[in-house]
């Protein structure tokens, strides 16, 4: 699949700030696999590709997943993260956007 690193969301300042913070937090870690809950179009995962070996992004919007697949090597899945089954300890880092915490 062709990847275009020029994701249209790269100019959104708040997202760029999040990417910078995550890169600083993870730069000295041995981060092999990342899970991004509520990944949207996968922009943040696309910007962290130099940090991880593999990643999974989950979002409930099929449109966002389809759109984002052209911009990242991460595996983007549509679904509810609470209902996905992953092995305990499968990920070195789990990122979630705290915007809609109940």
Number of domains as seen in the coordinates: 1
Give the biggest beta sheet: 4 strands, parallel
Which structural category do the helix and sheet elements fall into? alpha/beta
Uncertain runs with pLDDT below 50, 5 residues or more?
A: none
What CATH first level would be assigned?
A: Alpha Beta
Give helix and strand order, one letter per element, not per position. Answer: HEHEHEE
Average pLDDT number: 84
Architecture, CATH level 2? 3-Layer(aba) Sandwich
| Estimated helix fraction | 25-40%
Describe the structure.
With 102 residues, the chain is α/β, with parallel strands linked by helices. The chain has one domain: 3-Layer(aba) Sandwich (Rossmann fold). The chain has a four-stranded parallel β-sheet with strand order 3-2-1-4, covered by helices on one side. The longest helix is centred in the N-terminal third of the chain and has 14 residues. The N and C termini lie far apart (36 Å).
Summarize the SSE layout with pairings.
Blueprint: H1 13-26, E1 33-37, H2 43-47, E2 54-59, H3 62-68, E3 75-78, E4 93-96
Parallel strand pairs: 1-2, 1-4, 2-3
